[in-house]
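input
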Amino acid sequence: MRLWRALKQTGCGILRDGVYLLPSGGANDEALARLEAEIRAAGGFAMTLELKARTAAQLADLRKRFDRSGEYGALVRRIGLAKASLARLGSRRAQTEMRRLEHALQKLAAIDFYPGEAKAQAATALADLKAAYRAAYAGGEPRFSRRRPRQVDAARYRKRIWATRKEPWVDRLASAWLIKRFIDRDARFAWIARPSECPAKAVGFDFDGAEFTHVGNRVTFEVLLSSFGLEADPALAAIGSAVHFLDAGGIPVPDAKGLETMLKGAREKARSDDALLAESMRTFDLLHAAYRIGGAPSRRM
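output
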C-alpha cells in the first residue's frame, strides 16, 4: 500500500496491472529508481524499461493515461463550493480553505506532465476565489504602485495614530511591530474596515491610498524600512525578506514558514486585533534578536 501511494504521488499512468508509466527524465527517473530499489529490498521484483512510441497515435494513447482533466474538474468544483460559502466561512476559515485549495492545485500541477485547458481553468477559478475573498473581507488590499519610496522626517511620525485594515496579517503585523519598536514607540493603532474609515490626521499604512503601502515590488514593511532609513539593519532586512515571501511570494525564505506558523498560533489565541498585535510583537522581537545574534539566514534559491 505504501508503494502504491508513492506511485500515485509521482503521477504515474497505468498501462496495465503492475505496469506504470512516467515521462522519462530528471526527477521522474530518480523516483522510479528509488521505488525499484525499495521493492527489491523488500524481496519483490521490479524492473524499469524505456518505452518509445513508434507512431503519433501510440504517443497520443500514452499521453491519455496522464490526463488530469477529471482531477482538475473535481478541484474546480471544490473551489466553486468555497466561493459560494465565503460569507458562511468567515475571514479566517476562508483563508484556511483557500490555502488548502492552492496547495491542492500546486500538487496536481506538479504531476500534470502535459498541461492544457483544464489546468488553466482551475487556475482561473482559484484566482476568482481569491478576488471574491478580497472583495468580501480584505477591505482595500493594497495594489503595488509604480512610485518610489521616499525618505521622510522621522520626527513628524512620533506619538501618532497609525491606521490599517482590521484583522491584520503578516505584512500589517510586521509593519505595526516595526512602527512600535523603531519608528514611533508611543504609536497607537486604529483597525479599520475600509480606507474611507481612516481617522483624520492618522498615518495610514498597507491599504490603497495610504501614506505607506506597497511600492514597486516592495511590500509595506519594506517600504517603511526604506522611508525611515532602516534598511542598513541586516536583521530587519532579513525579516523583510520573510514578510515579502509570505505576503507577495517570490524567492523562498528558510524561516518564513516558521514565522507564519507562530503568527497562526497568535491569531488563534487572540480575541481582538490589539491582542493579536501584542502576541505577534513577541514573535517579531525574538526573531529580530535571533538574527542580530546569529546573523540572517541566506535565501534558498
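quick obs: Strands lie at 13-16, 19-21, 161-165, 188-192, 203-204.
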